Amino acid sequence: MRISVIGSGYVGIVTGATLAEAGFKITCLDILEEKISDIKRGISPIYEPGLERLIRNGLDSGNLNASTELEKHIANSDVVFVCVGTPSNEDGSIDLQYIESVSKTIGKSIKDSEEDIVVVVKSTVVPLTTEETVQKIILEESGRKRETVGIAMNPEFLREGSAVDDALNPDRIVLGCTDEKSKTALMKIYEGHTCPIMHCDPRTAEMIKYSSNSFLAAKISFVNELANMCDKWNMDFERVAEGMGMDSRISKQFLRAGVGFGGSCFPKDVKALRRAAKNDGLSSEMLDATLSVNEKQPEIVVNMAREMLGELKNKKIAVLGLAFKADTDDIRESRAFNIVEKLKNENAEVIGHDPQATETFAKETGITCTDDLEEALRGVDCVIIQTEWDEYKSIKPEFLCNLMKKPIVIDGRRTFDNGYFTDSDVEYVAIGLGN
Ligand code: UDX
């Protein structure tokens, strides 16, 4: 089976490299020369644990190839995965320009061929997009008969930082096929997996993706609201979460309170689903609340800083963790932006620290950033932890006391266990810890 993966961003490169590892002949396609030449040299275009090794394995075995010649490779493929980005428009809806242009390219590429082809949408698109945009454009542009083109929607559920493992060992596979051709091809591609495989139509597959992400985002906002109550009533929300999580219907996952969710998926997907609902006159109160709680959470750590230091003007504050979560260099929608902005509005002097994401964050915000923890901590009045990097978990209280002007730790991610600083001079406050 010859497989092309269009779009060598996050989803595309992980899909391509893991399918190559499983033994398929893969060509990763992108219009950006730089990305393709990186992949060809065994360099991953994104930071993701384990990915570069898979890319190198693929290049060595000859299973993985990369090219900017989209039409040529699409025309020679049995299956094409569409993995291009669907960024947000101002109003929260998704921008379909890349989906539309790739659909046109596919249509053009298969125009003069009689051979069967299967097109699988992996990009996150709102319900009906695969049928009403992708399929429609491909058939119009190619003039091909519907029976010769298989169309399916197969959402990804990859988490940044563990995307390779998620792709190699998924907990479910959703196949939204419109025809037997695409179903047969996808069953062959995923035959090595033992997890449940769900079959449905494309619109259901699209909705499963949005519903899953919106549910998880809502769960986070819900626990954040509860954690804020625990703060007020002086108890540790982690204990509450422990008790809640024992109910298998609730599950103990995604009960971590903090400064809120960021990243390339949750904020964008909740906004897109809300917009799509609004466009069709449907209410989306749960989605509205999910976003509004999330907007308010970063304020809490800034308020804590003010309570402990008084006026923040000219206070030196280190924000530890700029990536939206640990084990990634991705700063998209990171809560660090909201925290830094609020601190700057109060004329505090801010320094950012991150093991992976300093360059991009400094460029976007103009603040000083460093990957040297000692430099970040030296002489600061307090630290605010935004990302729970392992590097922070092993910080010793004496280290903080020696370097900081005042050893005050405001933990926006419950990085440290309750009691970690008990016998030290460190003043420790955290979201949902009570006082
Ligand atoms: C998410 C989904 O988990 C994944 O299935 C989907 O395919 C893409 O979106 P990702 O954005 O990589 O993955 O990160 P995830 O680990 O889910 O965390 C998202 C955000 O929620 C992070 O900012 C994280 O810090 C926050 N979070 C997560 C919490 O605040 N509390 C939690 O309990 C869990």
From TrEMBL:
It catalyses: UDP-alpha-D-glucose + 2 NAD(+) + H2O = UDP-alpha-D-glucuronate + 2 NADH + 3 H(+). NAD(+) binds at D30, K35, T86, T124, E160, K268, R332. GO terms for biological process: polysaccharide biosynthetic process; UDP-glucuronate biosynthetic process. Transmembrane segments: none annotated. Substrate binds at F157, L158, R159, E160, K209, F254, L255, R256, A257, G258, G262, K325. It holds the Pfam family UDPG_MGDP_dh_C. Belongs to the UDP-glucose/GDP-mannose dehydrogenase family. This is UDP-glucose 6-dehydrogenase. It comes from Marine Group III euryarchaeote CG-Bathy1. The lineage of its organism: Archaea, Methanobacteriati, Thermoplasmatota, Thermoplasmata, Candidatus Thermoprofundales.
